[in-house]
Amino acid sequence: MPISKKDRVRLPLSPLSRLDPLNLVNREHKKADAAGTRAPVKANGNPVKAPTPMSKCAFCKKEIVASNQTQKKVHAETHDQKVWTKEKCWPDDTFA
């Protein structure tokens, strides 16, 4: 995981020193990229969350979080139940 700038202890640099702390961070990021171990982070150093899997309604193409069964049921009830049931909205999912 990359080291954020906040985690670094800033040492006073002498005028003759070439070891810039920001340059050291960039080196570590490059090494982590090459090794495939670098996690994506935001500008403030917090890790980026993985996107949640979404399901599309087959009728209106609205995207809803795949793991939220109640939200899917409520959304399916907004369509005409005589013509378009919840099983038609989400054909890949099973409802209990």
Brief summary of the model shown:
The protein has 96 residues and is mainly alpha-helical. Helices cover 28% and strands 6% of the residues.
Give descriptors for this structure.
96 residues, two-stranded antiparallel sheet
How does this model look, in words?
With 96 residues, the chain is mainly α. The chain has helices at 21-35, 69-76, 86-89, and strands at residues 54-56, 63-65. A two-stranded antiparallel sheet has the order 1-2. The model has no long low-confidence stretch (mean pLDDT 80).
Strand residues, percent: 5-15%
What does the average pLDDT come to?
Answer: 80
Q: Could you name the ranges where pLDDT drops below 50 across 5 or more consecutive residues?
A: none
Shape: rod-shaped
Architecture blueprint of SSEs:
Layout: H1 21-35, E1 54-56, E2 63-65, H2 69-76, H3 86-89
Antiparallel strand pairs: 1-2
